[in-house]
Fold:
Amino acid sequence: MSSGLFQSDIQIPRRHVVVFCDDAFGPQADRWFDLLPEGCHRILPVFDSGFDAAHPTCRPRVEAFLDAHPSLFDRALSLVVPGGEVAKNDPKVVDSVLAAIHAENICRQSFVAIFGGGAVLDAVGFAASIAHRGVKVLRFPTTTLAQDDAGIGVKNGVNHHNEKNWRGVFAVPTAVINDFSLLASLSDRDWRSGFSEAVKVALLKDTREFELLEQHVEAIARRSEVESQRAIIRSAELHWRHIVEGGDPFEDEIARPLDYGHWSAHRLERLTGGALKHGEAVAIGLGIDAALAVELGRSTPDFQRRVLGVLHKFGFTLDHPQLDDRAAIFMGIEQFRAHLGGALTLTLVAEPGVPFDIHDADFALISSAIERHRSMVRTLLA
Amino acid sequence: MSSGLFQSDIQIPRRHVVVFCDDAFGPQADRWFDLLPEGCHRILPVFDSGFDAAHPTCRPRVEAFLDAHPSLFDRALSLVVPGGEVAKNDPKVVDSVLAAIHAENICRQSFVAIFGGGAVLDAVGFAASIAHRGVKVLRFPTTTLAQDDAGIGVKNGVNHHNEKNWRGVFAVPTAVINDFSLLASLSDRDWRSGFSEAVKVALLKDTREFELLEQHVEAIARRSEVESQRAIIRSAELHWRHIVEGGDPFEDEIARPLDYGHWSAHRLERLTGGALKHGEAVAIGLGIDAALAVELGRSTPDFQRRVLGVLHKFGFTLDHPQLDDRAAIFMGIEQFRAHLGGALTLTLVAEPGVPFDIHDADFALISSAIERHRSMVRTLLA
Structure:
């Protein structure tokens, strides 16, 4: 009697949708209206304070637009939360979103519409994901990085115990709406910061795209619309394909190939106290990992030169005084392993479109790779 | 250029496994060992303080057992957390589990093994679900209620804003291990409390099972092994089938049929400050909903009498002074609607195995149903 075993796969119906437009709160609104369920939806708009300050016309315009469509939306009072890594470091940000969700009667059938960069999408998305076991989310990414990478992911989270994304959950937003008009107010520094992730995903998955980025880098750096939008769309698509076609959207496996270049990038962000932005740290991280592949005899200096060349033309600074402390950087390897759990799995790239995994990396190896990276940067700048 | 739409279903591989045994930490251990991935697993055992006090030999036995299998387990220091609804009301419980996960280096490939009743499974499971975007969980339910219902669910959560389960996420445990030996130390009151959920799920889904419960109620009430284990296994199976076969495991839809009898039960738990246990409140809630179906002309006094009859024979008290305040009970309808979101959907039962939904319920109707329930209880006790 006391035996028995019930086991079955469980189907969790989820759909991952990314839509691109020039103006989501104008004539193109039906691009995302059409993605919503039937009926009138309670909606809580949450804005990144950095975006709100740089783009002050957006919030009133969004509010007026939602109010002008009362058959579709029942708007809650907007919330503005601190932008940048503060959103993920200060637990009060998640608490303030949870308080607004409660005060504004946002239920499981309502929406939280998030306007912000990657950090705000992460922190506000986390709050929405743990209220009522998950309130629906619409993401309106406001940076190149959030549009071509961070906003496409199905991760949410905040920092804790001085570790990035220590608290978090996987959750698929109802839709990611990449509105290019929201990028107009970005500083050149923030504009540039999105494209190291575009280089990363092209190196991992698409030789032709890497060549296109090499061809278009100057046009993108001067923010030419056609080349920039094409690159953002393609990067978003490659990240999206990895999630929907890769078979491991919630990262149950040990490998995390999209984190190419990230073990040292996360460490550099921490060590510089956020002085290096994520995209800037990733540019350096890609350089170090390219050098690491050469150091292992799996790649060539020519490949390394191409990687650094395109990043340099985007305007990234590829060396940093923090690289002097190789032991401190090396700790990033162990933190990366621990966050994923199990044995170390680092994805590197031998040549565009040819990734490979390694499972150990000692201090001598990492140290040589950093030296090789810095040496190539000096050659490039000479 | 600036248009584009990527959309695709996303496959999230999850498996829902429930295993039954007489002694998970003895000769039957291979029943659940076989469900684990290959390799040695870091494991953090967390115990419900109520269970730990009532069953003091269990924790040292589990610890010794894990230590005796070093090729399978790398045991972390055990944690004991407050049992019962305190686990879900006091945010320090979640914080203490998160702190232990960090201090004991529990990663995404490690396990948190939870020994406890439904409330502890909920709160500790919630903490595990938000660390590293989800640490793996093994559930060892220690009450009849947790074995036949709560532990089978894929919900986790804690109370907040004075509302049940306001913070929470859906997450599928690696396995639910229903070890009958863990029930030996239950008080008769806690033993009984699990069986109102067995009555509920039989009424919703399985006419024959309801008849069996009517036949076996005296044997189960005196804790006869064969009848009790059969009833627990069948209730667990019916709950499990609803999740794996119902097509809506993460409750994206508005209806929540397994919450038959629960709108008033949740309210009664709150109003009595926890003096009524969940299973006791559900017994009264089932009675009220049976009366409601009669009041609506959809069911018969004979059905209502059968429902109350079997609950009474289990030993449940079916009236409560709190029912005098019908307005306070009625508020449960709105709270139930708000938690699910959207329009009200209440699932009722017309006769065993024949559920139906209603979408409104005014005060006069609820008030009459409560009166009808109390009147039938008086008849039953006369």
